Write the C-alpha cells for this entry.
Amino acid sequence: MDSLVFKISWRVIAYPALAYAAISLVLFYLYVHPRKYISEVKPSDSGTMFEDVSLTTADGLKLAGWFIPNKTSKKAVIICHGYPMDKGNVYGMTSFLAKDFNLLLFDFRGLGGSGGFFSSGGTKETADIDAAIIFLADKGFKKVGLFGFSMGAATILMSKNPAVAVRVADAPFADIDGELDYVFKGYGVLRRPLIWLMKYWSFIFLGANMDRVSPLNRIAELTQPVLLIHGDKDTQVPVESSLRLKAANPRAELWIINGANHGETLAIAENSYKNKVVDFFQKNL
C-alpha cells in the first residue's frame, strides 16, 4: 500500500513538473528565436540617400545595416531598434535626426536581415553596438551618440564602449527579470518558476546569465549624459522602469510623455520630441 501511494505521489509531482519544464522550453525558444520581421520601409522612400552596409561582430556575425551620411555634420548617432523588429521599424521615429547627424541603423543579431539564430534580449547585443561603433570609427567618428527604443534602449544603457558620448533611451526596461515578471503576470504564482526555468535555458543554450541583463545596474555607473523617455500609458514596458532607472542615476534626465503607449512618444509629443532629442545630441555629442 505504501509503495502504491509513493508511486502515485511521485507521478503527481513529477509529471506536471516535466510538462511545465517542457512548456518553459517552448516559450524560451519562441522568445529567443522569433519569426523574423523585415519591414518594407527604406530611407529612400522619403528621398533620403543611404548605403546598405554590413557590420561584423567580434563573434563573427554579419549584421545588416544602413548608413545615412550627412556631409554637413561631423557627428554620428547609432539607432537601435526594439524586439522583435528591425531597423526599418524604428526608422520612422528617428528619421528626423538625419537632418543634423550621420546615422547608422542596423538589425540586432537574430533579427531582421542579420545573421545569428538567437536574440538574447540585450545579453549579447552590446557586442552588436560595438560592431557599429567600429564601423563608424573607420569613417573617422571617434565618439558617437546612441538612440535606442525598447530592447534597443535597454541595450544602449548597458553598453560599456568608451566611444559612447551620449545616450537617448525611449521606453527601456530596467532589468530583464522585472520585464519578464510583467510579461508573464497572467501566470500568477507560476510565473516565477517559469522565469527561473527560462533563465536556466538561457544559460544552457546561450551561455548567458540573464540576471546580468540589467540596465538598472549599469546606469548608476554612467557618467555620460542620459535622456530617458517614456510614455505613462506604456503597456509593454511600464513607465516604472524608467522611474527606477532615474532613481539609480539622478544625473539622468527623465521625460515622461503623458498619454503615450509603447512606441507612441513621437506621435504624441511631435515637434517637442524632435527638438528635445536633437538638442540633447547637439549639446552632448
Notes: The chain has one domain: 33-175+213-284. The chain has a mean pLDDT of 92. The two ends are 76 Å apart (CA to CA). Residues 2-32 form the longest helix (31 residues).
